[in-house]
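Message: I would value a second opinion on how I read folds in token form. Give me a protein, with the fold worked out from its sequence. Write it directly below this note and I will take it from there.
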Amino acid sequence: MPFLGQDWRSPGWSWIKTEDGWKRCEPWTEGLEGENNRCGASHGIILNSEDEEIFNNEEHEYASKKRKKDHFRNDRNTQCFYREKWIYVHKESTRERHGYCTLGEAFNRLDFFSAVQDARRFTYVARLLQLIAKSQLTSLSGVAQKNYFNVLDKIVQKVLDDHQNPRLIKDLLQDLSSTLCILIRGVGKSVLVGNINIWVCRLETILNWQQQLQNLQMTEQVDSGLTLSDLPVHMLSNILYRFSDGWDIVTLGQVTPTLSALSEDRRLWKKLCQYHFGEKQFCRHLILSEKGHIEWKLMYFALQKHYPTKEQYGDTLHFCRHCSILFWKDRRLALLLEDSGHPCTAADPDSCFTPVSPQHFIDLFKF
């Protein structure tokens, strides 16, 4: 049980209850603290007045927390760890809660490191990082900035290893480098948190990542089984109809002559335009051929420049309207343990959950 000393700034003495009564614990020595850090011990070794070693986690939790805090502060490649994978979103001070929930705090508390490894959440996290790079980079705290670039580093290395989603990450790095170039020029106005040299090094790292992605070459894997070109034409057509991005259709059409012919199907591009855009938008940007037919493919890319397209994600963050909590919903735990992902007090928790898009995530922290 800790007690405050005469100086209100001091942490006070630490006491422990024994059979002979309460005894005061001596402060930690530098040698003992360094030895525990090297061993990576999760428990605390405290010496009492009789020089006896006592292992007690509860009574000396403050020392363990301090050691973990110093460890994560010194480890530049580690995201700050929090046991909970959810955060309470409050926009004003109340008697129960003081202060505000910021975007940087939410980025620290939510487990984006594990989300990058999940194929369903990868695109969601990449899109969120892109939106933050465009407009919210200056609102991140120092710790949130470190976590942001650590997550970005993990994303880039994953793309370089498995060769998936390179175009998405190239767009992300391009937006981030453009924003940093503009902000570094205005460093005299204190628009960035941190030393200017750190941001210059980060910009150089981003340029290095862009070069690595530019030199990325897709290697053909030799396999004796069936390939994409061995599938029937109707199955290849069904695959193209599952795509929601026009650039993915164009890229796939460059693989074989059969896919090239299927990727030019007018009905395919018509379905894509009708999915992403409305009839009023069609009338404003109508493109006709010489024969009077609508050029749906050209219309798609023309409309894409003026209007946002619908975004699809395998899994997203969820917001509980009853508890005002933002969290990742673990579907496996929800099925096995009936765990919603956060301590919900509603009678029917599923009816209170709302999927949160990346833009909605940022809007939650605009006051």
Notes: The chain has 16 helices and nine strands. The longest helix spans residues 142-162.
